[in-house]
Amino acid sequence: MKTNKLIVAGLIGSIVHFFLGWIVYGVLLMNTMQSHTNQSIFRKDDEMIFWSIILGSLCFGFLLSYILEKSKVTGLKNRNSLSVLVGLLMAAYINFSSFGTSTVYIDIVGVLTDTLAGGLVAGFTGWTISLYLDNSVNNK
Q1: Cα-based distances in Å from 23 to 18, 41, 76, 121, 136
Q2: Helix, strand, or coil here: 77?
Q3: How many other C-beta atoms are found inside a 10 Å radius of the C-beta of residue 25?
Q4: Pair 90, 134: CB distance under 8 Å
Q5: Pseudo-torsion of CA 36, 86, 131, 27, nearest 10°?
Q6: Cα–Cα distance between 140 and 126 in angstroms, integer?
Q7: DSSP H helical segments within the chain, as ranges?
Q8: pTM listed for this prediction
Q9: Which of 36, 51, 58, 80 could bridge to 110 as Cys pair (CB 3.0-4.6 Å)?
Q10: What gap in Å lies between CA 92 and CA 105, rounded to an integer?
Q11: Is 5 exposed, middle or buried (0-12, 13-18, 19+ CB in 10 A)?
Q12: Is 104 helix (H, G, I), strand (E, B) or coil?
């Protein structure tokens, strides 16, 4: 993968991941996640460290871009499937480990909800990255 292509794909994925994460977790699933997680450990909205959230989205955007390009998987449908799988496995790893070792989640509903949401966010992020990657191949 060319460096410029990786940078653009990573930035696209980062931006989509950041805003989609806010929509999914901060708006759509806010009440559900509050009901199934230990709220005493989370920062209040005005105490959040946004540079850290942005850095996390940058890391995920670049990781997913790299995986999608290096896997040699082509086509939106196939890349989207791979993105969903990567998101589900990453979320499952983090969430089940957290459930077993901490008090982040109150019950398994929170674990499963967050895992499914992680797959959804990763799938849509991968889809947007794939749109760019497919267009950059066709525009060579």
Answers
A1: 9, 21, 23, 10, 28
A2: helix
A3: 16
A4: no
A5: 10
A6: 21
A7: 3-21, 30-36, 50-70, 76-101, 108-138
A8: 0.90
A9: 36
A10: 13
A11: middle
A12: coil
Using the structure block, give the residue that is written with the tokens 């942005």: 54
- Block residue for tokens 């999914």: 24
Contact yes or no for 3/111 (Cβ under 8 A): no
Q: Token digits for 67?
A: 């995986």
Q: What is d(CA 1, CA 126) in angstroms, rounded to the nearest whole number? A: 16
Who's near 94: CB < 8 A, 6+ residues apart?
Answer: 118
Of 75, 71, 63, 69, the closest CA to residue 122 belongs to 63
- 115 and 91 in contact (C-beta within 8 Å)? yes
Work out the angle at residue 123's Cα, subtended by the Cα atoms of residues 45 and 66, and round it to the nearest 5 degrees: 95
pLDDT by residue (tens digit) across 84-105? 999 999 999 999 999 999 999 9
